[in-house]
């Protein structure tokens, strides 16, 4: 008998919440299925209906977040060649803020480096469309790679720091600050 989708989603959400409360304070290798299920108020069998193991749960959480961000970026890139980086970054920041519990950890020191790398690759087309680094004829491939990493690492670090602030500035103010103080456009063709 299939459970109702709302019950399934609520159960998975409770298991994820329990996992995340543990992951925030210790490494994934030290977290057991038993701990997660006890904290969530379910039995181990319920856990195994949705996940193979703790790593699978973690992967599904990451994949879900990355797919959501990828969909947002894809929607923005479908528009014409012009890009409004401020509006687009606002959409990504709102998504990061609404999934704060996950994003602040995944992008931070305790996060998965693979997640950060994939996150950067997803947002790169937006940043590049604004900066035009890929199309710049004056740069070598190595110079493009360096500049790409510079901008992406800076953006990820700024977003991570912004998410960790107890008195977080509003999204529009954060974007205006980054745009006016850090995010300098390269000369375009």
From TrEMBL:
One of its GO terms (molecular function) is DNA binding. Gene3D superfamilies: Tetracycline Repressor, domain 2 (1.10.357.10). InterPro entries: Homeodomain-like_sf, HTH-type_Tx_Regulator, HTH_TetR, TetR_C_Firmicutes. The keyword DNA-binding applies. Residues 9-69 form the HTH tetR-type domain. Residues 32-51 bind DNA. Keywords: DNA-binding. This is TetR family transcriptional regulator.
């Amino acid at each position: 008998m299939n459970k109702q989708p709302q019950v399934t989603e609520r159960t998975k959400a409770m298991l994820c919440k329990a996992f995340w409360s543990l992951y925030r304070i210790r490494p994934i290798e030290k977290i057991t299925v038993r701990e997660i299920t006890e904290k969530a108020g379910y039995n181990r069998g319920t856990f195994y209906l949705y996940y193979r193991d703790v790593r699978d749960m973690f992967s599904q959480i990451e994949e879900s977040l990355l797919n959501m961000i990828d969909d947002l970026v894809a929607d923005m890139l479908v528009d014409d060649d012009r890009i409004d980086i401020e509006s687009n970054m606002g959409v990504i920041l709102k998504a990061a803020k609404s999934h704060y519990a996950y994003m602040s950890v995944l992008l931070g020191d305790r996060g998965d480096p693979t997640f950060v790398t994939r996150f950067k690759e997803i947002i790169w087309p937006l940043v590049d469309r604004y900066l035009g680094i890929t199309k710049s004829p004056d740069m070598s491939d190595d110079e493009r790679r360096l500049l790409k990493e510079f901008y992406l690492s800076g953006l990820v670090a700024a977003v991570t720091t912004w998410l960790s602030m107890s008195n977080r500035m509003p999204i529009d103010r954060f974007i205006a600050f980054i745009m006016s103080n850090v995010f300098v456009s390269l000369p375009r063709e």
